[in-house]
Amino acid sequence: MHPAIHTDGVAVITGAAKGIGFAIAQCVARHGMRLALLDSDADALSNAASRLRQDEVPVSVVVGDVTDIGVISRLRDEAMRLGDVSLVVNNAAIINGGGPWQDPEQWRRVMEVNFWAALTVQQMFVPQLLSQATPSAIVNLGSKEGITTPPGNAAYSVSKAALRVLTEQMAHELREQIGSKVTAHLLIPGYTFTPMNSPGMTADTPKPDPMWTADQVAESLIAGMTANDFYILCEDNEVTRGLDEKRIQWSADDLILNRPALSRWHPDYKEQFRAFIGTEAATATSNSN
């Protein structure tokens, strides 16, 4: 087990009322952690806290917009009231973005939620983590769309690409700090059954077969942290790790081989890409991250 995950340690999680955020909260609570949770959905957050408290988990909640620095300050205060913070998870995100030259207001909102808010949380919590004598960790929720950057939702891809680079830079700087007991990790979910991917889902909505559950992603986070992985790349039920790796390699080779941008979706490279992924091609369906 990663030393940041321990009994009576405090886990701070944004976007914690539903989906992956709530699954992570449940998972670390089973390891005895106390929880400071943030979400903008007051009803969902209240319900989440009630479910956790049924198992006698100490929970503090903050309702508000993750882009509001005052809300983040309250979250920090609530977390410190519970004890020493040992895990910070930047999970809050929105997916509806905009095209490369459209929707300027939506671009700003996506970048504020997916990138700037995460940076603010880091700036507020990392100095505190570094000042503690005990081990701790910070986890940012990335996306395969921030690595292979498929066309169709430029704002979201850019926000997650920026967050990936930020997390890589943070991991390096923490590693260079003499005596640092803080680690950084990038959790990269696959196709997951969450309200973001399945709007309008309820407790009775059947999970589509291709998707992983949020619980599986949370379990992968714990396993990846325990292995001291930085990149925690999750699979799902339709895309193998092998296919993910080939998609990522192809994207990197666009620059090295000077192919057209996003050549994977270029008609002139369609057959070349299929030959490249080879036996993995059978699993390449509509989930084209």
Automatic annotation (TrEMBL):
InterPro entries: NAD(P)-bd_dom_sf (IPR036291), Sc_DH/Rdtase_CS (IPR020904), SDR_fam (IPR002347)
GO MF, any single term: oxidoreductase activity, acting on NAD(P)H, oxygen as acceptor
Pfam families: adh_short
Domain of life: Bacteria
Keywords: Oxidoreductase
Keyword Metal-binding found: no
Family from the record: Belongs to the short-chain dehydrogenases/reductases (SDR) family.
Protein name as it appears in the record: SDR family oxidoreductase
Organism, scientific name: Paraburkholderia dipogonis
Lineage: Bacteria, Pseudomonadati, Pseudomonadota, Betaproteobacteria, Burkholderiales
